[in-house]
Design a protein that fits this description.
This protein is mostly helical. It contains 17 helices and three strands. Bound molecules: acetyl coenzyme *A (ACO). It catalyses: oxaloacetate + acetyl-CoA + H2O = citrate + CoA + H(+).
Amino acid sequence: LRQIKADAEDFGLMTHDPGFNNTSSCRSSITYIDGDAGILRYRGYPIEQLADSSSYLETAYLILNGELPTKPQLDAWVHEITHRTMVHENIKKLMDGFHFDAHPMGMLISTLSAMSTFYPQAKNIKDPAMRRLQIARLIAKVPTISAYAYRKRMGLPYVYPDNSLSYTGNFLKMMFQRADPYIPDPIMEKALDVLFVLHADHEQNCGTNAMRSVGSSNVDPYSAMAGAAAALYGPLHGGANEQVLRMLQEIGSASNVADYIRRVKNREVLLMGFGHRVYKNYDPRAAIVKQLAYDVFEVVGRNPMIDIALELEKIALEDDYFVSRKLYPNVDFYTGIIYQAMKFPVDMFPVLFAIPRTVGWLAQWDEMHNDKETSIARPRQIYTGYDARDFVPVEKRG
Ligand code: ACO
């Protein structure tokens, strides 16, 4: 574009695209989405097949490396992750310093950025082996930090990782172990693993865009991931699952749904968990999560919130307001109901999104640093302020 500038004062051609609706920020071979058809694939594999037949750590390997692992590769990868789960003892002291009612997502974001000070060699981002080491560390340690954040919030002692358990089994134990030995329920362990597969990556969403944008300054991955996690925390992004449950609690019963829909149509409130920047069809992840809810209910009993959610979906999908705007349930619509049934407190919901998204952020960050096209993210603007004017001393200002 610089080559078509008429003179030095000419901007050349510049697009104005707030929210990047029509802007591609990178080339990526990780995740494919067709929002109109409701298709999501990681490295070419449909999300439905991965949710059905893969595991989170296997999917993480696929996302990072581009191919499914052989059995020895998978074993080595699982061993590496499950033997990097411990965090430095001073992380516990850092956790202790938070206010008693600190939000776990705030604690996670802060701890991620603090971790850059524990691994100063991570700033060597030009070294692919060094990048891979930090990626393994982060995938292994984020569940530990997340569980610590929960235990701090609850005033409970921290539980050390148990490397004999699966990725999700260990996380459940670090979260929920009390005085007795804790054996994770295999259905819960599997359900959480499927939810983690579904959340592993989603191309250039707000959090991933933040990861690439912050990372494009060549900062270390811990600092970049703190930025990505902060973006995810917002109620329009990963914070939506928390907002969905608060909305269902506010509605209270299926008989109040019609009135809530009326308020949505009056633009007083949003229908949280509905709508998506890319999907203009049913989010394929939402369909899997909805089914998964019933597996979890078989173990823990039916969550009454599901009836309100089903009624909301039924009314919305028949209403022209939602149909004409192509507003369908997104992944967050049913996940909160499952997390609540699993006994996760509501403010842990965005954390449960951040844990599996760790691999997506890091794979995209790694891909960016392997891409010769990458340059620092630095958009332009359309200036709407004053022309040049002279400074007025304070005593002369009216
Ligand atoms: N409830 C009511 N109306 C909605 C909703 C909603 N959840 N989402 C969009 N709309 C309406 C808008 O008001 C707009 O209507 P208009 O054209 O009459 O003004 C129209 O649908 C188009 O909406 P946009 O805001 O242009 O859609 P956009 O793609 O920018 O926003 C977003 C997507 C942010 C996800 C939005 O749908 C939303 O706020 N949803 C609720 C929050 C949510 O569930 N977020 C999770 C997203 S998934 C994820 O992050 C994992």
